[in-house]
Amino acid sequence: MSLREPEPPDPSSSAVLRLNEALSALSNAHGKKFLEMLRHGTLMVEIFKPAPADTQQPHPQDELYFVVCGGADFVHGTEHRRVKFGDVLFVAAGRSHYFENISIDFAVWGVFYGPAGGEMA
Known about the structure:
This protein is mainly β. The protein is 7% helix and 40% strand. The protein has a domain at 39-113: Jelly Rolls. It has one helix and eight strands. The longest helix has 9 residues, at 19-27.
């Protein structure tokens, strides 16, 4: 087994990202909390497991999170919302946000897209 991170698939025509493969690759990524799984133009998809603490900073692109395991509190501005498997979250470019009270199994697909500053810039 290689210790290198896997190369993101070539999305020239299509791609299938498998959750179990992404989580396995992330667990082998030496303590990283996220791992890029696909890039195509402005689109980037990553697997993200922020436990035990989320230290992310605002991103320059709009983003979506698809909760695929566990649960956490999503903090966005003054809002605190419990999120769990099956939820989809949107965050506009440049907005402060993070997860807290994170279950040990919490994981999301993070999808970044569009121009810097977001679609509405």
